[in-house]
Amino acid sequence: MREVNEDVSVYAGQRATAEAIERGGGGGLSVDALLAKVRTAAAPTPAGTDVAAAAAAVPDVEGPVPDVVPDVEGPAAAVPDVEGPAAVVPDVESPAAVVPDVEALAAAIAAVAGRHLPEGHLSPDADFFDAGGTSVGAVELVAALEDELGMEIALDDVFADARPTSLAHRWLSTSHTTAALSAPAAPEAPTPGTTWAPDTAGTATSGGTSAPVTVGSPLPPSAAGTRPAPAPGILPVPAPRTAPAVAVTPTPYSTARPEDLDQILADLALADRLPWTGDPEPLPPRRILLTGATGFLGSHMLLDLLRHSDAHVYCLVRAADEEAALGRLGEALKKYELPWSSEVRRRVTVLPGDIRRPHLGLSDELWTTLTHELDSVVGVAAAVDFLRGYQSLRQSNVIGTLTLAELAATGRPKPLHHISSIAVFNEVGITAMGEDDPLAHVDRLVAGYDQTKWAAEVALRRARDHGLIVTALRPGGIGGHTRTGAYNPQDLSSGLLSAFGRFRTVPAFNHLNAAPVDWVSRVAVGVVCEPDAWGYDYNLTGVPNTLDDVVRDMALGGMHVRVQDWDEWRTHALARLEAEPVPELAFLNRVLQSPTALKLCEATLKGPAATAERTAALVEALGLRPAARYDAQAQLRTFERLAQDGLARLPHKDDQPYLWFSETTEGGVGPVGAPADTPCSMALTLSLASMYQLVKERRVDVTGELTCAAVHPEPLVVEHGDVWIRPEEGIPQRHGMRHRLLSYRLALRDAEGGRWWLEGHKYARARRDVWRQTRALTVEIGREGAPAALAGELVVPADTYLRDQVDGIKVDPRLTSQEKRAAKLTWLAWFGLEMGRGLLGPFARAAADLLDLRRTTTPSEHHR
Amino acid sequence: MILRSTDSRTRPTLRKVRSTTTLRPLHHRLDPARVEEIPFRADDGVRLGLTRVDSGDTDRPAVLLLHGHTASADMFLLPETRNLVDVLLDDGYEPWLLDWRGSCRLPYNETGQKYTYDDVALYDIPAAVSHIRRRIGDRPLFVVAHCVGSLTLSLSMTAGLVPGLAGVVSQGVFLTPKLAGRTSLRMSLAGELLRSRIDHIPVDIRKAGLWSKYTPLFALASRGASCPDPTCQILHNSAWGTGASLFVHEHLSEATHHRLAELLGPAPLWILPHLRRIELARTVVRWHDGDHRYRALPRNALDAAARIDTPVLLLAGSENGLWLDSQRLCHDVLARRQPQLDVAYTEIPGYGHLDTFLGRGAALDVFGHILEFLGERR
Q1: How far A641 CA lies from chain B's nearest CA (Å)?
Q2: Which of the pair, A21 or B133, is modelled with greater confidence?
Q3: Where among B228, B249, B271 does a domain terminate?
Q4: Residue A838 falls within a domain, yes or no?
Q5: B161 within some domain
Q6: Are residues B217 and B299 in the same domain?
Q7: Three-state secondary-structure class, residue A744
Q8: How far apart are CA B132 and CA B64, in angstroms?
Q9: Which of A715, B53, B262, B310 has the highest count of CB atoms within 10 angstroms of its CB?
Q10: How many domains does one find in chain A?
């Protein structure tokens, strides 16, 4: 899914051109074309700057200008600019005068930004992130802009819209408003737009409120033009409607920025340009176009498509040529532990292209061929970034989706399967998230990601009216693979899961709507391959986890967490991340500091459980694995991988042990081959850092000391020690019936610094001294690097066994008494079972040998 | 009592006086002219099946494929899916398929003389390898072995009977067989209870009939099964009554599912004592301790593992319901006890036991690992 973000964008520089082509793509003299003509005629400035200039006039949402919000509430917002093109013209506040400044500044910003990009340069109209910029790069860019150009731009502004031109405008409009905008505007035309700049915040409800919006429209000319012309009659409507809204939206970041809303409306209108199309043939697809195959979900879906259909899959991959594309796809699949062999390659064709470009960046010839030959279009590609704004993400997430719709609707009718997201419901306070429930109010979606997913899905709803079969598949959080543990490092749930385990705290949430990637992918592919499932909306959210579930699951793994309020948790987590920075969790740190992303988190954590009746019915009908809760067992592999990669942290030997008890042994040792008559004893403490260590490694940590005159008159200290329980399944070291129950391996240091090793085994044998077998340790002791010098047997005295190892078990004092009891019982039950199995082994073999003495009578079944 | 009833519906067969054992024909979609069936006998005279798939080239490395017990060479030739033979041919190898005496294309599991895995390790595999060697000269020879085919191969290898292989891919189980306690218990108990009454467990109810002494077995196997097909139940849900699961149901194509009774035959009960001894020792051990004909085989294959002279790839599905994580265990044990050996372990996520070869997605998920291993050593 993240595909579009990460790598060097080959086309970054060409984006502006691409956009221009795309705008032209509608053809004919549509309203927008006419409008654009009027515009250019009236304001003869280059298209790009024209747009940007318009954007500059829009007041910042985060600034003291709450009044702008109401303006975009109604459809009327769009009205003036269509209804009177002439009125628009003067509003584009004297571009001629402003542009030189803006252009120069934008060029300077672009030059600075270029240094933080893999490509080394950035076109003033290209988005910093689209060009391959990273969040870290953005932080550096903000610092560099302040140092070198003296511009103080908030990081969040960069995320919201990272085109240098926009940044220049934003800077000019906020800090140098009067100098840059008002001054040149004055001689030109005293339009409402100029007088209305930020200082007019107080005049929110004045009659002129609708006018600024006209000015503020940041739409590219074509997009703006695609707005359907509403009847002029609705023009007066907004004024009364705006009034109450102003009063209730005083806090910043509680609503969308008006310029984003305008852009959304314009983008939605693009769907109206799609051709009319008929019904596709209701057959399982044979040729599928898949986008986003290098992403987390996409790569899993690619393999599932190959496994569960006979289709050939065409993967759109962003790369310069086919070889590079194939290389990228292979890397991605390997990264997610998916197979990449000649067997996979023979059923896949890569198409180098870019979802953000017109016709996906494919040649006209190829585009035409695809429109006629494909059976199915599966759109998985999306820019997943919770920090970036709508402007920055729309090209990938909205325009790209519409291009796929165009592909699906052109030529042979094909169904379009669109991976949407539960984010379309991501409004704080939404009450239900069913498959057919109303989506969020877009003006209350704050994060750019939520907005783009909403806009894409709503645009595709419009596409349905053109006859296109559109399936919207909405995953919630996509958790790691239950078998391979492959996870998406940029996914919020990976970060949160890691943080929960690290800090041993969880924020109070209602539900986590997350499902493992293997299930999401399998169900999505089930839909793609089943014609009767096409054309509906599905929530691929699985069974939501409640707070209780998560706390219980983590306790089961020996990680007892405490619940905190969301704000408290955030402060706490940020402080911990500040105190001991984890580079792998830097993105979580940024998310927790970004006001827009926080809104997204809040909505996610406080949202209701998503319901998915249609998906459940489909899963049952297709005989797929029913959704199961993404529980501790399912998350285990992912958690291991997270720990391996440094995101999460498994409990460690040096931490406060989870559980411990002491063990004393007494006996004698002697030189190898001689009688063991020198008294020897050990006083050990056996401890566990977590149940995970026990179950996965079957290992217990050992500390303590050895007292043995044959080694050294003073006691020896255990520097490092392990006990393995039934190592290697107890397989005898040499052919025979001595199965190993326990193995001790200790590194010892004597008082003079001499180093020794001790190796001991408890053996199970088919003999009646079972009680002694569990206590007797056959040991060998030697100097470090040398063979064994001493051998003998140490035995746990029968009277101390129960006292020390059952009654004497201590548990981490931070746990509640209930948790302590559970920990103790779990250990005893697990250890008891293992010992039982170990002791039984030799007896079972002996019994089998006796049974084999029976005479074999073979009944005559020869006739069969 | 149902178990004691004699089965009167089956016709007696004529005693074989002049004819010998014949193999059921292979089921494949290759050009018949390219499939060479070799009249082949093991060193102790038992008729086996050896098949060479001609690729037209004479310089390709050969790959010997060993099926599991009660399966047959058909498991590598499934016409309905992209099978291992297709994949090997396309990647430039010459496949050879051995039907050792546990094959369901041969009659021994049902009616023939008894054998143990010692016979397979001592007679069948070495004979096939030396036959192939005579035909291919000094071209490299690889072996891909499944389940008991792989287990007996490990015994041949540690006995030094098949030296100089270019590489071995072992699926499911190798030197350290491990069954679930439940499976082991059922196998031992059921084997002991039934062995005076029947000598094999059929998988095809069409051959046993609805009302027969096997009916209770099929009924037991159907407990809690999700698939109504009795053959599928006794294999998928119960692995010949042991309660283990042989494959992940979803992975089989419909055509393969219909053919299960053809792909897997009845399991003989008289093999259980050897299997039980192996399983309880958690290592491959010889059955014949007093018979000097078998002294070439090591008493304990794990102790003799140092004789392995070829790279080994241990494959296993993560959901193997029969041998569990035997392969991982084998890898760990060999890494510790014989660190000089070239042994790798690859786990195939989500796969069970048989579906690693029979599954409709096996070419995508499994065969790539095999090709990669062979490709590095060809």
Answers
A1: 15
A2: B133
A3: B271
A4: no
A5: yes
A6: no
A7: strand
A8: 8
A9: B53
A10: 3
- The answer to whether A857 contacts B195, with C-beta atoms less than 8 Å apart, is yes
* Same-domain status, A627 and A731: no
Q: Looking at per-residue confidence, does A393 or A69 come out higher?
A: A393
Over 60: is that where the pLDDT of A57 sits? no
Beta-carbon neighbour count of residue A170 at 10 Å?
A: 23
The verdict on residue A560 lying in a domain is yes
pLDDT at A803 over 70: yes
- Please report the pLDDT score of residue A269 as a whole number: 95
Q: What average pLDDT does this structure show over A73-88? A: 36
CB contact under 8 Å between A857 and B196, yes or no, is: yes
* Residue positions counted in chain A: 864
Of B281, B299, B365, the CB nearest to A339: B365
Which tokens hold the place of A142? 């903000």
pLDDT band at B255 (very low <50, low <70, confident <90, very high): very high
- The residues, any chain, with a CB within 8 Å of residue A189's CB and separated by 6 or more, are A90, A94
Task: Determine contact, residues A492/A601, Cβ cutoff 8 Å.
Answer: yes
Q: In which region does residue B89 sit, left (phi positive, over 0), alpha (psi from -120 to 50) or beta (all else)?
A: alpha
| A134 is a domain residue | yes
Check CB contact under 8 Å for A344 and B364: yes
Q: Which residues of chain A have a CB within 8 Å of the CB of B280?
A: 841, 844-845, 848
Range of the domain at B243: 180-271
The answer to whether B364 contacts A484, with C-beta atoms less than 8 Å apart, is no
Based on the domain organization, do A260 and A287 belong to the same domain? no
Does a structural domain hold residue A853? no
Instruction: Indicate if the pLDDT at residue A12 is higher than 80.
Output: no
- The range of the structural domain enclosing residue A86 comes to 3-195+214-234+256-270
Q: Which ipTM score applies to this complex?
A: 0.92
- The pLDDT score that the predictor gives to residue B122 is 97
Which residues, listed in sequence order, are joined to residue A586 by a DSSP beta bridge? none
pLDDT surpassing 60 at residue A195 = no
Collapsed DSSP state (helix, strand, coil) of residue A63: coil
Classify A812 as helix, strand or coil.
coil
Residues B150, B293 share a domain: yes
In a domain, B351, yes or no: yes
DSSP B196: T
Q: Answer whether residue A592 shows pLDDT above 80.
A: yes
pLDDT surpassing 90 at residue B139: yes
Tell me whether residue B15 is in a domain: no
Flag whether B25 is in a domain.
Answer: no
d(C-alpha A254, C-alpha A250), whole Å? 8
Asked which of A402-411, A586-595, B364-373 is least confident by mean pLDDT, the reply is A586-595
Q: What is the pLDDT of residue A859?
A: 61
**Of the partner residues B178, B349, B368, the one whose CB lies closest to the CB of residue A343:** B368
Cα separation, A798 vs A772, whole angstroms: 8
Q: How far apart are CA A697 and CA B149, in angstroms?
A: 31
To 10 degrees, the CA torsion angle through B325, B327, B332, B333?
Answer: 110
Are residue A409 and residue A430 in the same domain, yes or no?
A: yes
B175 & B303 share domain: yes
Q: Identify whether residues B44 and B135 lie together within a single domain.
A: yes
CATH code of residue A572: 3.40.50.720
Which structure tokens are listed for A622? 């297709």
In the numeric block, the tokens 């959210």 are attached to A541
Q: Hey, are the CB atoms on A307 and B110 less than 8 Å from each other?
A: no
CA atoms within 13 A on the CB side of A498: 31
Structurally, chain B folds into a number of domains equal to: 2
CA angle A399, A404, A405 (to 5 degrees): 95
Does residue B316 share a domain with residue B250? no
- Among residues B249, B271, B293, the one where a domain terminates is B271
In this predicted structure, the answer to whether residue B98 has a pLDDT above a threshold of 90 is yes
pLDDT averaged over every residue in chain A = 80
| Of B82, B199, B363, Cβ closest to residue A858 | B199
**Least confident window among A28-37, A451-460, A594-603, B41-50:** A28-37
Asked if residue A216 has pLDDT above 70, the reply is no
- The answer on A783 and A747 residing in a single domain is yes
